Amino acid sequence: MEITDINEIEEIIKGAVCCRLGLVDGDKPYIVPVSFGYQRNALYFHGALEGRKVELIKKNSKVCFEIDSDVEIVKADEPCDWTMKYRSVIGVGRARILEGEEKIYGLRMIMRQYTKGDSSFPKSELDSVLVVRVDIESLSGRKSGY
Length: 146
Prior knowledge:
With 146 residues, this protein is of the alpha+beta class. It has one domain: Electron Transport, Fmn-binding Protein, Chain A (Pnp Oxidase, Chain A). 26% of the residues lie in helices and 47% in strands. It has four helices and eight strands, in the order E-H-E-E-E-E-H-E-E-H-H-E. It has helices at residues 6-15, 52-59, 100-114, 123-127; strands at residues 2-3, 19-25, 28-34, 36-39, 42-47, 62-74, 83-97, 130-144. Strands 1, 2, 3, 4, 5, 6, 7 and 8 form an eight-stranded antiparallel sheet that branches.
């Protein structure tokens, strides 16, 4: 069933622990799980300063992502009657690498996904991490069993 209520979509996002980020690698898709943060219309994630993910974002900023929560297998007597309960969100957007205060803000959004309160980041840590913001262009939600 489609979810159209933005509040329910945001509830799913805020309750999730992993985001699967889809990138374009030439003519092939590339998906990577990331820790993330969310603020309406934007996702934030961090990673190493170098690597495949960074190179792909620099080549093509178009991304997609998938987030799910409340996943549960529902067993039945007959194999074809098994099903799955879930709530999920899929979106597309454009990624950009953050610097300065935006980078710190992005890290705070990531930390807020997993814990309460504010966080501070030593300069040495800031210099050793890449932070990316995905400006969300579209979101859709689906659920089954809820």
